[in-house]
Amino acid sequence: MPLLNSLTSQSSLEEVDSFRQEIRRIKGPDSPIVVVGTKRDLASEREVSAKTIESLAKSWDLPFYETSAKHNRNVNDPFEDLVRQMRRRILPPVGREDRKKQKRGECITM
């Protein structure tokens, strides 16, 4: 689940923790989550420092990405990270040959 907050809004950062707690409560402690700071391209309007949000994400043990849809910067990275987290969650760490033998068709909901 991507937790999005605007880097141009301190109040959006304050809401992220309540969303994170709600996701953990509903989906469980191992649910895939990434913290995503949006609007990286609006540096002059920035209210949330990289250091602040990085420390927060680190304290939650979650990956953090700063993105800019306008400049197409890091837009795919958070979603690729979520897919990796989901795959690790359902596929045990085995060799390639063993993975080919595993049943396919499991569905993951976010």
From TrEMBL:
InterPro entries xref list: P-loop_NTPase (IPR027417), Small_GTPase (IPR001806), Small_GTPase_Ras-type (IPR020849)
GO molecular function, one term: GTPase activity
Any one GO biological process: signal transduction
Entries under Gene3D superfamilies matching the protein: P-loop containing nucleotide triphosphate hydrolases
GO cellular component: plasma membrane
Principal subcellular localization: membrane
Official protein name in the record: P-loop containing nucleoside triphosphate hydrolase protein
Localisation: Cell membrane
Keywords: GTP-binding, Hydrolase, Nucleotide-binding
Topology of the protein relative to the lipid bilayer: Lipid-anchor
Highest taxon of the lineage: Eukaryota
